């Protein structure tokens, strides 16, 4: 059996949970196109710790880690089973690689995890656990961490890295409108990043903040982009990749998704399922 693909998905704003736009149907189609996993390991920028922690709850709890949003968001949940055995295995793989990883029974699924999962697997019937992000570490670290986790994809574990392809909240809050025109600089950043990603030019990608046009405007802080490096590193062949362009929301949040690996579904296949 070939390894499952690894995914990078943009979750943008918590409002994605009730405003699917183009992203929600794409994620649902992507979940249908990928071979059904036995378990899911999700990485979100909204759980950041100095060293890796892996959630070990037997039953997941939904964390509403946001404020001043519509009341309907707080009524939503994602009652998936937890995956404590996967948490223990993940922590052990990371310890074997020299990282001080531990399991954690205090966290659950934050909105960076449960919002995209609610579209990918709306029945919430696949065991899932969350791995914390080390937001202070550079892209090289995230890529190597992904490489450490790569063998999980051979064990029917779907690795879902959640973030946002661009993430300038200052611009969103300045003029919050879901259908606001996309800021022109985003196209230049996306074109640069996707060009180097297609070639897996790691030197350039690791140094994107110095080399990519408008990098610091696209990501004033880079925790929402760092998960893509985990997905790249965990893929059996990151040169085999599919880019799903679902445009932007609020003018500053690009909602692109990527599938990496030999088993990455084609754009045509996912597009058919999304219709």
Automatic annotation (TrEMBL):
InterPro entries from the UniProt entry: Extradiol_dOase_DODA, Xdiol_dOase_suB
Protein keywords: Dioxygenase, Metal-binding, Oxidoreductase, Zinc
GO molecular function, a single term: ferrous iron binding
Residue span(s) of domain Extradiol ring-cleavage dioxygenase class III enzyme subunit B: 35-238
CDD domains: 45_DOPA_Dioxygenase
Cofactor(s) listed: Zn(2+)
Superkingdom as given in the UniProt entry: Bacteria
Entry's family note: Belongs to the DODA-type extradiol aromatic ring-opening dioxygenase family.
Protein name (record): Dioxygenase
Organism: Pandoraea faecigallinarum
């Amino acid at each position: 059996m070939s390894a499952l693909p690894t995914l990078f998905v943009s979750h943008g704003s918590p409002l994605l949970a009730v405003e699917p736009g183009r992203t929600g149907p794409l994620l649902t189609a992507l979940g249908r196109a990928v071979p059904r996993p036995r378990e899911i390991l999700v990485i979100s920028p909204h759980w950041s710790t100095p060293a890796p922690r892996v959630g070990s709850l037997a039953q997941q709890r939904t964390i509403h880690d946001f404020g001043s949003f519509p009341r309907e968001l707080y009524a939503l949940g994602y009652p998936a089973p937890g995956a404590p055995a996967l948490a223990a295995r993940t922590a052990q793989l990371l310890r074997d690689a020299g990282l001080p990883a531990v399991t954690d029974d205090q966290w659950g699924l934050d909105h960076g995890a449960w919002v995209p999962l609610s579209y990918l697997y709306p029945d919430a019937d696949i065991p899932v656990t969350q791995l914390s992000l080390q937001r202070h570490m550079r892209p090289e670290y995230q890529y190597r961490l992904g490489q450490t986790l790569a063998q999980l994809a051979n064990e029917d574990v779907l690795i879902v890295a959640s973030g946002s392809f661009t993430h300038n909240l200052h611009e969103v809050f300045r003029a919050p409108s879901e259908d606001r025109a996309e800021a022109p600089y985003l196209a230049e950043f996306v074109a640069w990043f996707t060009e180097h990603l297609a070639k897996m030019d790691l030197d350039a990608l690791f140094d994107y903040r110095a080399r990519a046009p408008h990098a610091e405007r696209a990501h004033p802080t880079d925790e929402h982009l760092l998960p893509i490096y985990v997905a790249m590193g965990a893929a059996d062949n990151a040169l085999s990749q599919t880019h799903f362009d679902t445009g932007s929301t609020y003018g500053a949040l690009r909602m692109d998704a990527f599938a990496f690996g030999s088993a990455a579904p084609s754009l045509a296949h996912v597009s058919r399922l999304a219709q």
